[in-house]
Amino acid sequence: MKASRVAVIGGGIGGLTAAGLLAKEGHAVTLFEGGPSLGGKAQAVTVEGLTLDTGPTLLTLPALVRSTFEQLGALDLLPPFTELEPQCTYHFADGCGFTAYKDLERMAESAAELRPIERKGVHSFYAEAAAIWRAAGEPYLEAPFEGMAGFMARVARRGIGAMLAGMKLDTLHTLAAKHFQTHHLRQYVGRFATYAGGSPYASSAAFALIPHIEHAYGVHHVRGGIGALVEALGQAVRRLGVTVHLETRARFERVSGGYRVDPAGEVFDSVVVNADPLASLRRESEPLSLSGFVLLLEAEGRPAVPHHAVMFGGDYRKEFDELFAGQLAADPTVYVCNPSATDPGMAPLGRTGLFVMVNAPAMPLEEGRAEQARRDWESSAERVREQMFEKLMRHYPALKGRVRVVGQRSPVDLAARGAPGGSIYGFLPHGRFGPFRRPRIRGGTPGLFFAGGGTHPGGGVPLVMLSGRFAAQLASAHLREGV
Q: Could you tell me which residue ranges the Amine oxidase domain spans (predicted)?
């Protein structure tokens, strides 16, 4: 194939993947990143020897990640993974608990402690989640989404049963209520809608493919954190000859012969944009997915906090009603990640680093309202911190008097990194067909493509990596055949 010039705008995981694969094909690739470091939302910080991710904190679909590094000729750079078992500990407002395991029988035993009938519910729910994966998940991830016709053709190859299963999907909450009697396990299932920044009461039951993926392929920790994976990806693309410009906010416009990219002032044959696509597609008026507020904590010693834990609020429906009304939750669900429980090297001896997060509403995009929202966070942050500490200390009393804040991230910080309104995933995939309205990888003009969590197939490290693979695939076809 004739070598062409490709600009990649944005150095998140999707952009890095696309850049590396295009460079491996022999194209001259230049990557422009507006921030001081690569990774996009997948950032990590080191504070006084503590290393903590500030974005994604876990990895699923490890084979997809390994195969991407293999395509890049960079398996030697890939950090090792550790599969977690148990996967996550759940605490509920009434004092009950539940533990998710990859081992389905162990998970069923934990569920039966809530109510014996829930043992059966675990098996029936995961059987239906596996069917949803086969009927909708595999076809959705098999190729770039270019329209319903191509997607339905991939579904049809799996039989009429798959097509009928897809037509029957309701909300994720409805699916959870079908299989589980207790609100505890309905909350557990509903939480997976937040992986896309949505509400379980409005998101498609198709999101049940996420707990299926965690059960079937495991939940993994990357040694050194997701930040170590980003570092390895950055090394891989540089080794392939990608020219990387940091702290360079690039703009592009369609011109004769391709795309002019400034401030380089050069014309490229194709552009891959690793940034939220809604504004570029003039869809910025659409509702946004959730944002989040994160505390980074240092704890003395090595308290018995699991690698992943979730502490639910008492009224899940009210929590999402508040969030999507633009309000902070009165009783928020709190997530905590303790990476040194698995990877002691992420914290010095005798210390522990904790990532603690609550969901938050995205901020408005209109400048006047956005400025007011930024000011509001200055006063809201203290109240949210108090809520997070109260819940953390209630469930893990060994932390009392042993914790200090070493950093925080609010929707204001996410917005400063380019996330619209601080929304983590941008597009909000509510509704039965919500995932199919997600912005496509192919842009509106020839040679323009998108990558990242805001486009197909969605958020999370492996899916963002897959978006980069799809973007490179489509860009290669365009450069080769003009399509």
A: 13-474
